[in-house]
Design goal:
Enzyme class: hydrolase
Strand order of the largest sheet: 3-2-1-4-5-7-6
Number of domains: 1
Number of strands: 7
Largest sheet: 7 strands, mixed
CATH superfamily: LmbE-like
Family: Belongs to the PIGL family.
Helix content: 40-55%
Number of helices: 10
Protein name: N-acetylglucosaminylphosphatidylinositol deacetylase
Structural class: alpha/beta
CATH class: Alpha Beta
Organism: Nicotiana tabacum
Distance between the termini: 50 Å
Radius of gyration: 18 Å
CATH topology: Rossmann fold
CATH architecture: 3-Layer(aba) Sandwich
Strand content: 5-15%
GO molecular function, one term: N-acetylglucosaminylphosphatidylinositol deacetylase activity
Length: 258
């Protein structure tokens, strides 16, 4: 009987959470984000990731939110994800996924630098990353950067290195020249709680100072699945489960990097 109560409670929470997401997607009441509380305006945004599929597995709530509000979104992927020798395939898959996410292919840049190769234990130099990001910011007139936090969701060293590269960039950038925001990593229970985590994310954002943390609900969760499905080389059973049960499919909390 107790197990039945638990199962019913979980199901009710999932349904309520999905309804909340659907309601927000149909409503124009969401507050403006990424602007320190001012009026939200169109921005030139650069999403900096480590591997093809990072954008679909972790950042789709952010991508969908910004795209729906007319932001000019660019993606800079620091490697082809060639750890298993499938770099060329994965590169093309990212282009296909970007189409599903409404990001023009010409605004997706994928590097294959000899010192930035995919793999656990392969550390990337923060100065090199900073230099590359700075060049992309200048070339695309970027005024806002989004990337991983210092844990990088999964703890992958390449994710963490990308974060350090952005931090290094900020050290040598004039205040106000460019904003940078990081995707907050959560503990394992929240990470695999699916849409239920939206409630904790909303509360977490409210308890931070205004303009420091923003909670973005995924207005098009089906688009997330469609985008990840384009990464066919990675679309194995456990990643299908991850996309369905990961809280990052349904919500992103972004924190301003100071």
């Amino acid at each position: 009987m107790e197990w039945l109560v638990i199962i019913v409670t979980v199901v009710v929470l999932w349904v309520a959470s999905l309804f909340k997401i659907l309601h927000e997607s149909l409503s124009a009441s969401q507050v403006a984000v990424l602007n320190d509380g001012g009026v939200f305006c169109k921005r030139n945004v650069l999403l900096v990731i480590a591997h093809p599929d990072d954008e679909s597995m972790f950042f789709t709530p952010t991508i969908n939110y910004l795209a729906s509000r007319g932001c000019n979104l660019h993606i800079l992927c620091m490697s082809t994800g060639n750890a298993d020798g499938m770099g060329n395939v994965r590169k093309e898959e990212l282009y296909l996924a970007s189409v599903m996410l409404k990001v023009p292919q010409k605004q997706v840049k994928i590097l294959d630098h000899p010192d930035l190769q995919d793999g656990f234990g392969k550390s990337w130099n923060s100065k090199l990353l900073s230099k590359i990001i700075k060049e992309e910011i200048a070339n695309c007139d970027i005024d806002l950067v989004v990337t991983f936090d210092n844990y990088g969701v999964s703890g992958h060293c390449n994710h963490c290195d990308v974060h350090q590269g952005v931090r290094k960039l900020l050290q040598y950038t004039s205040h106000g020249e460019v904003e940078a925001w990081e995707l907050i990593s959560t503990n394992i229970l929240r990470k695999y709680s699916g849409p239920v985590d939206i409630w904790l994310s909303i509360l977490s954002a409210k308890f931070h100072l205004r303009g420091v943390v923003h909670c973005l609900l995924n207005e098009h969760p089906r688009r997330s699945l469609a985008a990840m499905a384009q990464h066919k080389s990675q679309w194995v059973w456990f990643r299908k489960l991850f996309v369905c049960f990961s809280s990052y499919t349904y919500v992103n909390c972004l924190k301003k990097i100071n």
